[in-house]
Specification:
By secondary structure, the protein is an all-alpha fold. It has one domain (13-113, 136-244). Helices cover 73% and strands 0% of the residues. The protein has nine helices and no strands. The longest helix has 41 residues, at 175-215. The two termini are 37 Å apart.
């Protein structure tokens, strides 16, 4: 292969100027998996620490609603229990939002850019969509999707085995203890799924950063033209350096 063909290969790392331009255009490595995993972990942390309070509030509300003997005695709970329950549920949503924002900051694309709000035909173009279904990126997405399915399926299967073993010992326990056992099992499964998804999300974030840098690589001609725009003609600069030395 000739030198001209080699010179057209994108083999040079992007310059700081090109990275800055990409950032100004709203281009950055993005990992939706990392945002989802971070939001899930923070939401689970809120649920885990606020779980006993949440169950107690639900128990109080249920007791207040069904405190009477007759059906006519059933009444809606007061505004205060509903407000406390709403605050706990809102904390879960806040945890998910904070996790998503934190993931965006980690990936370096937390800056707001109004250009990203403009209509983009490529988003609804069938041809562009089909092109994204083939290639290296599509293969990597398929591998990550298969890993997620295996992870969730394995954890749920393990949870079913654990629950079937524990059902035999729940015959003479109270409904409260049964609910507590079910809650513990659900939290255990959720934390295992969230931990596995977090590991996959970190791997996806690393790949997305690498893929983004690969897309910004420059050919020799692009590099020379950019250096000419930012620092002047390379040949004249070399001559000036030679005269100085």
């Amino acid at each position: 292969m000739s030198d001209d063909a080699h010179s057209d290969d994108k083999q040079f790392e992007p310059t700081p100027y090109k990275l800055q331009q990409a950032h100004q255009d709203g281009l950055a490595a993005r990992s939706s998996d990392l945002a989802a995993a971070a939001g899930m972990l923070l939401s689970l942390a809120v649920v885990t620490f606020a779980g006993p309070v949440l169950m107690r509030e639900l128990q109080l509300m249920t007791g207040e609603m069904l405190g009477g003997i007759s059906a006519n005695a059933i009444r809606m709970p007061g505004a205060l229990p509903i407000a406390r329950l709403g605050m706990l549920v809102a904390l879960v949503g806040v945890g998910a939002i904070v996790g998503g924002v934190a993931a965006a900051v980690i990936m370096g694309n937390a800056a707001f850019n109004s250009a990203r709000l403009r209509f983009n035909w490529d988003k609804i173009n069938p041809g562009a969509g089909l092109s994204r279904m083939v290639g290296r990126a599509a293969g990597v997405r398929a591998v990550f999707a298969a890993c997620k399915i295996l992870l969730v399926g394995g954890v749920m299967l393990d949870a079913l085995v654990r629950s079937s073993v524990g059902l035999a010992s729940l015959g003479g326990v109270s409904p409260r203890e049964m609910a507590l056992s079910a809650w513990t099992l659900l939290l255990w499964a959720a934390w295992k799924i969230a931990g596995g998804l977090a590991i996959l999300a970190i791997a996806d974030a690393i790949y997305q950063r690498w893929e983004f840098r690969q897309g910004l690589k420059m050919t020799r001609r692009e590099l020379m033209e950019e250096l000419k725009r930012t620092e002047g003609d390379v040949r004249f600069r070399k001559r000036r350096m030679t005269r100085v030395t």
